[in-house]
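This section describes the prediction task in plain terms. A model, or a person checking by hand, is given the sequence of a single protein chain and must write out its three-dimensional structure as a string of tokens. No templates, partner chains or ligands are provided. The sample shown here is typical of the held-out split.
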Amino acid sequence: MFSHYGNEYRFKLKIFGASDSVNDFQTTNVIVYSTYQIETLDNSVARAWNPHFAQGRRHSGDMISHTVAGQSVVTVSVQNQSGGYAKGEPIIQEMQKTLQYLFGWGSRRHSRRYTIPEEFKIALVLPDAGNMTIMLEKGKTYYKLMNQRIKKKNLMFAMSRYLYRSTSDNDGVSLLTYLMKMMTLPENVSYVLENRVPFWFFDMETRQKVHCRLNAELIGTSEVAIEVSDGIWGSLPVEDLDTMVNYFYHEHTRSKTWRNASPKRLWTMTMGEEPTSSQLDLMKEFLVQNRTKDLIENRAKELMASLEVKYPDRINIIKHDNKTIMLVAGKLGDWAITATGNGRTSETQKVQVYFYDTMTSDNNVFKGPICIDNIHSNSSLGDQFASRALALLNDKLTVKLIYTIDRYIPPDCTEEDDECRIFKTTNIPLAELDEKSLDWGKVL
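The expected answer:
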């Protein structure tokens, strides 16, 4: 079909999940037709390459491996990443990095990037999806995907999403529809529709930098509405919003349009006219009320409280010496989650987890702290409380996904007994515990 391109490669894409299990992965088969030699997929060349591209990968040594039959296996993994991810979706980020390395499209600073031509064509075929095919083209000054011009960053995002989707969807029409949606809505726009538009400015009265978030709604295929003041909405073309998010969220400084943009300029860009002095004052008050930090902290507190309401018999939040303790009744036993103290906190581990054990413990019946890392490095304290609690509600499954937990649970601890329940020593149901029920300073 594309034999005239001159080069054909076949590989199995193996994408690992975010758990610690080596069996948690999905696969899809890909055939690549290219007008240039892809050295990382060429069995005769790739053996001389060192595939240790992403430091800290559990599977880095096998990122690109080759079978006797000549088919390559390309591995994508977020496991054992040190420091976590500050922004974006980890698996999609790793997909983008892997594809850039695979095809030789890495950054100029990439020391292992091999030379590729300025112009080329590539066709990606999915044999498991009825030979569904997408075509991309590189010119001297542009990229095209399915004959539509697209930024390189958005191209990598769309390709990564498309290939990841193909691991669970073998319907060619469905995949094509999904791809076109990803091309129409860049990654940045999809992000702000779910998480609001990031913006910051310098408040000259307080001499502080104010970070805030603005509501956004898609009002057409190429335009997004933004709430710039209380009940007042302006709009931006998708391309302009994409550039705005690159500047205010990803900290790309090349944009002259948005560089050090003031609230006045934001109003003018979205409303098409300058604000009056009273409109500008109201706008600034509105932006201050929507500070990012306040929004995150309030949302996290609401989430923690909502979990206690949703699971009244299984989650209990108590206060002890100004310290928050979240108690969780799992299937195997009871757990306690507290904020990390003693200067040991990190962005991926702001909370500590303990397991209640009367079978092997004598004095301190809570065993821990147990190391459980967040995959993101920018999660708030409240979000980390909530994520641990939700995972520990089904601790029987979680223990199989996070290997650091298993050694803290006695082998004889089962769902059928109360050996690992606080009720065994206090005769008080978890939901009725308070700060006086136990000497929390000693048991934690």
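For orientation: Residues 187 and 201 are 24 Å apart (CA to CA).
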